[in-house]
Amino acid sequence: MKILAAFLLILTAGVVCNFSPASAQTKTEPSVTHQDLNEFGVKHKTPRPDNEEEEEEYDIESDQEIMTANKTPEQSVNVQWYLPEIGETQKKRRTRVIIPGKTTPGARVFVNAKAIIVITKKNRVGYLPTKKAMAGKAVAVANENGLFELTLDLPNYTVQLPLGIVPPGSRKVTRRFQLNLSVEKERVRYTNLKIVSKSPAYTKRYGLWFGAGFNYLKYAQTSAKINSNLNFQTLKGPSAFGKAWMWLSETWDISGTAKMSPGGTSSSPNIQVQQNSYQWLIFATEATYYPESLRYNFWGNYKAQLAWRFGLQHHIVPFIARTANGSGVDATILTNDITMATAGFKFLIREHSRFTYETFMRFQYPISNGDTFEIDPKFAFDGSIGAIYEYTKNWRVGLFWYGQWHEYNFTHTDAYRKSLGYDPTINGSTTLFFSNVELRAGFEFN
Fold first, then answer.
1. N or C, which end of the chain has less CB nearby within 10 Å?
2. How crowded is residue 269: how many other Cβ atoms within 10 Å of its Cβ?
3. What 3-state class would DSSP assign to 332?
4. pTM of this prediction?
5. Non-local CB neighbours of 1 within 8 Å, separated by 6+ positions
6. What are phi and psi of 39, to 5 degrees?
């Protein structure tokens, strides 16, 4: 009777617990009609009157058989909740939900009720026995790093999950929380936690990515001194992409990327290009910083992280240059090395445990170049938008768009003018707009 009274008190009054750094606040649920829910195998229970005498604090030992040493003074515990994870279950109409968190090492976390409240889309209320919901140990003990997790098989509805925390050495529940979850097939999210990150226990430390796709390039190169005005557009593939990254800590990672983007040129009345294909190569080494203060609740249902990204890029870019032979209209494609410093931001949005969306934008500033031409920068940046699906625990697939825009003035030694004995130095300007769509696959591991 004591356990039933405590449960009904939670149902009628709700439990609101504030905690740091993320707080779980009970939402007011709509008024519902209580009906039997056969899929839970539990009969409907009628709430007691509101003036029912309140039950004394629940003792975890009486139900979970936890043995403790001598009684010590109660201590307060803080809890950080992480994004829920998805597992595999054989139960029909259930989703394996893993609730990870971080608290005082040695503290015990458990479902603080005999039954869990479940609300369907039609606002019907049912009660799922806690023992039938548990898919792992009934009590999670925080390890030496304070990490813990509870594993449950939950129905694909709205679930109100009451949790209790017992500090190490204590015999009483000193903190209570209610986590409201929206559970769907292969998808789960909190509805009453505003700022949540991914658990370090489920964050992979290393990653290898590969991809392929198609490129679009709009190229414009002009030089008044030789009366050239070359404009062309090209669509070509396949492109190739490779990336390796590593987490240094919970807030820092480093990455190295390589990108090969094929293209082709066309001629103009003033320039006849003999060799009309090229490869634009990009190599980058960068670091990303993820401040804890820049985590947000995005559009209510999404968890977002803003990060700062900076590093170095090395480009091998195409350049159309006249040859020494011919009548001054023959040209070929040369390449030039440009090393750029980059700085920008990265924005991650996690809808639930399987999907992540990311975007970034970086400003690029040339700090050195090769011998084909000298560069006088005007404007350069690149950016990307992508969606990533967590296919298995280690494999990811993603669809990405990547683009960059370069504008710069150049100074070049013209081979044709040099062959005639004229001053070979010419000036001009170049504009490159580059766009790429790729399908990528990644293997992430610890």
1. N
2. 7
3. strand
4. 0.74
5. none
6. -65, -20
